[in-house]
Amino acid sequence: MSEKILEVKNVSKMYGDRYALKNVDFEVYAGEIFGFIGPNGAGKSTLMRIISGLSSPTTGEVFICGKSVQRRFESAVINLGAMIENCQVYGYMTGKQNLNYYAKLYKGIPKKRIDEVAELVGMTPRINDKVKTYSLGMRQRIALAQAILHQPKLLILDEPTNGLDVNGVMELRQTLRALAAKTNISILISSHVLNEMEQLCDTVAIVDKGSILEIRTLDELHEKNGSVQRLRIRVNYPNYAAKLIYLKYDVPVEKAGNSILVPFDPNNAQKIINSLEQRNIKIYGTKIETKSLEDIYIEILKKHKTGKIS
Ligand SMILES: Nc1ncnc2c1ncn2[C@@H]1O[C@H](COP(=O)(O)OP(=O)(O)OP(=O)(O)O)[C@@H](O)[C@H]1O
Ligand SMILES: [Mg+2]
Fold first, then answer.
1. Which residues of the chain are in CATH 3.40.50.300 domains?
2. Which atom of ligand 1 is nearest to the CA of 13?
3. Hey, what CATH class is 226-290 in?
4. How many CB atoms lie within 10 A of CB 159?
5. Contact 275/247 with Cβ under 8 angstroms?
6. Continuous H helices in 158-217
7. Among 4, 190, 279, 297, which is disulfide-ready with 36 (CB 3.0 to 4.6 Å)?
8. C-alpha of residue 79 to centroid of ligand 2, in Å
9. pTM of whole model > 0.85?
């Protein structure tokens, strides 16, 4: 088992009489990329602020590399790099000057570390240009370089993809993946871009209303939530078709425009199609699809809302 880097122990946070976080409990291991996903107001930023020591939990405790953030702040956060809310980079300075400036805030960061982090985030070619000439994605990468200057073991990123275009998001994913592979840093990241989280994270926690609904590796999440694949059937009467299939086969049926979606089972796929045709429903096309993290996420939120927790 690899080293435990972050331990969040039964953390709750109340604002007045409302819980922003309720009994949040999880661990992150060395080299793991751990994603936090949840709707607006779920408590993601609150948790990240508590882990960084910017806010105190009402109850519970956070440990970074075994040191309590609440009781031994300095020795705990020495192992932490964070990018929470707007990143501070100065436009009138070059990328390198920004990094030099931050390096002075820490003790004992050797000069060569600046070039090293610039390389790690893929900014070497533009490092001597002024930050005001950078794209948002490049600024983000300089902020990331700042956050890892002191070689932390844990990196916290709160919605780092905000404001980035598709390319920017993809580049950030590649940078983070490379960073985790090269340095074995653990990354805790929150994002609304679920398809990116799916490609980036090893483990995800789905949060809603301050509680963790599920924590799973991506593989487990796919397995636990039924068949990974589903069959999409495009028909002329989707409402009628959905009702028929539900009554005859007792499988969950979803409607999406002119299509119905059923869990894919090779043993009954053809039977389902035949039944529809027997009832004179026209079939315009069929397709086997893989469930995305987004589909699973929506299912889990729905399931918990209706109280049907598996
Ligand atoms: N300083 C505060 N005072 C009172 N309530 C707060 C404070 N900060 C956060 N909250 C409440 O705590 C809850 C969680 O907020 P938080 O910002 O952590 O959510 P989030 O998951 O980061 O949402 P988003 O996706 O919008 O960033 C919300 O109900 C919010 O209104
Ligand atoms: Mg937030």
1. 4-217
2. 12
3. alpha beta
4. 18
5. no
6. 166-183, 194-200
7. 190
8. 23
9. no
Q: Residue holding tokens 């939120």?
A: 301
What is the number of the ligand closest to the CA of 209? Answer: 1
> Counting every residue, how long is the chain?
310
Measured distance CA(283)–CA(271) in Å, rounded: 13
Tens-place pLDDT, residues 33-53: 999 999 899 999 999 999 999
For residue 45 and ligand 1, the question of a CB distance below 6 A is answered with yes
Strands 186-190 vs 33-37: parallel, antiparallel or unpaired:
parallel
User: Could you tell me if the CB of 207 is within 6 A of ligand 1?
Assistant: no
Pocket test for ligand 1, best of 22, 37, 45 (most atoms within 8 A of CB): 45
How many whole angstroms separate alpha carbon 157 and alpha carbon 155?
7
Question: Would you say residue 228 has pLDDT above 70?
Answer: no
Q: Mean pLDDT throughout 175-193?
A: 90
| Whether residue 310 has its Cβ less than 6 Å from ligand 1 | no
Residue with tokens 């408590």: 43
- HSE-CB at 32 with a 13 A cutoff on CA atoms is 22
